[in-house]
Amino acid sequence: MIRFGRSATRRDVPLPAPGFTLGPRSFMAAALALSLAPMAGDAATPPLPGDTGVGSLPSARAAALPRGEDGLPLPPTDTAPQIRLGNFGFPITGDQPSVAEPGRAFTITPSIEVQALATDNVFNSPNRKSSDVITTVTPGVVISADTARLQGVLNYRPSARFYADNSDQNRIDHNFNGAALVTLVPGFAYLDLRGQSAVRSSSGGRAPESGLVTDDDDRLQTTSFQVSPYIVHRFGDTATMQIGYAYLNVDQSGNSLVQGPNGQVFNVGQSYEAHQGYAVVRTGPAFGRLAMEGRLEATEYIGEGVLDEAYRRIGTVEARYAILRGLYVLGEVGYEQQRYGGNPGVDIDEPVWSVGVRVDVTDRGTITLRYGRRNGFNSASLDAAVQVGVRTRISAQYSEGLSNSALEAGDLLTTTTLDQFGNPVDLRTGLPATRPLTGSFLGAENSLNRVKTASATLSQAWPRDRFALTVRREERTPISVAVGGSNFAQTGTSGSLTWARSLSESTEAVAFVQYGRTSSDVFGDGTVSSIGLTFVQQLREGLTGQLQFGRNTRDNSGTGGRSTQNFMLIGLRQTF
Questions:
Q1: Can you list the positions of beta strands (E) in 392-464?
Q2: CB 141 within 8 A of CB 110
């Protein structure tokens, strides 16, 4: 670990939730263990009622603001000049910003990891079985900055993979998460920078928890980044205003062509740029129990297929009234215009509205339920994350929207934040998102879909054990189809259980099992399962060893029948 300069001093800033550092553990094991770690305090405040649009450029969504005794958000103060109204530029931890004294502090933590993976079915295919040994070399670096002018973290881990028998599969996978907030003019002007990159399966039908894509022909690399300059101005205790611009770029590379059972070929990849201007005004404590927000957003897409000449424009006025301490009623009215290309295309030009209720469970969590009209249809939404006792945390989400895999990659830049080690954390629940861009059994698609997603997680933390039980259901129905794009509906239901146990001060074991069922208009019905056991041993300070056993199974008549992939992985990781 390399440090430069003097650390900036924080005043009255909530500490990040406890987790595991990347030093004494492998990255995979650390992420799994972190997903089961207890969370301290309340979850991040959920988005306001009007900010539920899916498939738009990441906008100035609501985030955690300091609250007064009535539970309502407080405006910026002289001791917190960087408070803002949405996620663009909001601090990396998702809490209120720190106030740094003059000085600078940079931390650089490099690492190197070497793994050998042996499998009996490198292509995870029922009729193209081939055993192989894959050697992976992964240099990595975590860079963090905490100064008066710059706060941020970058975690970059490119992986070079070398196949012993199938050298045509050799490749480099890029995995990184990064976010930074640059203070241009203290208390007034800021620059927000964010980026993510990860690899997922093009065709789907793989258990997301294993994170294993050994077939280069089924690999889709998704990279997204955004740049957003904005200004913030406070009108005393009356209101706070934010005006900004955002540029977003999403690129999907690798194999974006998926072949159907009857020889059809679908292009599931999508790359695009987007430009957004936004303005937000939010009331302050002068309004007492009433909190209001006015928002204008205009997003223009530059892309092909459904994003050809596409745009999304919306204006809303939202209100939240505290009936009792911790109990709020929500309301929203506004107007939206949306256009997407493809066949038959989408043109929405109509009012939007929503009503709802929010309950703050003391300091243990938040439950928000809404119903309204947006994206051309009526739907409900749920965001809940509650700490039950000392050891148990329950979270649940339900949402509907218009999106595809590329648009969701852009949305991840504002639905997740980063902890101090560069690991993504879900802003709605406060729980780590261990595998962004890969958390679905379903295949990628570039058509515009109506997406329904429901999930629930129960996690527990004990002195030596951590458990997480998750169930998830996802439905994707094409609304508009690009030429040659994916024009089939998909449905997936899955459940997973993860158990991490500390065997000793230097040894950790992580076990997981996952099962899911999928259904598709083209590929038919199928099942997916995954089971794995990982041991991580700290050999000496900074050096860890890893041993993993796993088995992935797919059974789908539309993709050739049943395939089973067994694998064993051994690795060493040195952190400097």
A1: 392-403, 416-418, 424-426, 448-461
A2: yes
Strands 543-556 and 239-254: unpaired
The pTM of this model reads: 0.76
Q: What pLDDT score was predicted for residue 337?
A: 97
Residues in the chain: 576
Signed CA dihedral, 53, 303, 195, 573: sign only: positive
**Residue 299 three-state SS:** strand
Please name which of 358, 354, 352, 353 lies closest in space to residue 329, comparing C-alpha atoms.
358
- Nearest 5°: CA angle at 323, between 320 and 329? 35
- Helix, strand, coil: what percent of the chain each, to 5? 5, 60, 35
- 399: closest CA among 436, 444, 429? 429
The ranges of the chain with pLDDT < 50 are 2-104, 207-210, 434-441
Handedness of CA 476, 479, 484, 489 (dihedral sign): positive
| C-alpha neighbours within 13 Å on the C-beta side of residue 330 | 24
Distance of CA 135 to the CA centre of its chain: 28
Structure tokens at 261: 């059972």
Summarize pLDDT for 153-179 with one digit per residue, the tens: 999 999 999 999 999 999 999 998 898
Closest CA to 549 of 536, 534, 563, 538: 534
Q: How many C-beta atoms surround the C-beta of residue 210 within 10 A?
A: 21
In whole angstroms, give the CA distance from residue 40 to residue 224: 30
CA 576 – CA 563 distance, rounded (Å): 41
pLDDT attached to residue 17: 28
Query: How many Å apart are CA 436 and CA 456, to the nearest integer?
Result: 17
Q: How far, in Å, CA of 454 to CA of 398, rounded?
A: 4
| Radius of gyration in angstroms for the set of CA atoms belonging to the chain, rounded to a whole number | 23
Identify any residues that bridge with 502 across adjacent strands, giving them in sequence order.
Answer: 508
Show the beta-strand stretches assigned E in 147-218. Answer: 150-156, 159-163, 171-173, 176-185, 189-201
Burial of residue 323 (CB within 10 Å: 0-12, 13-18, 19+) is: exposed
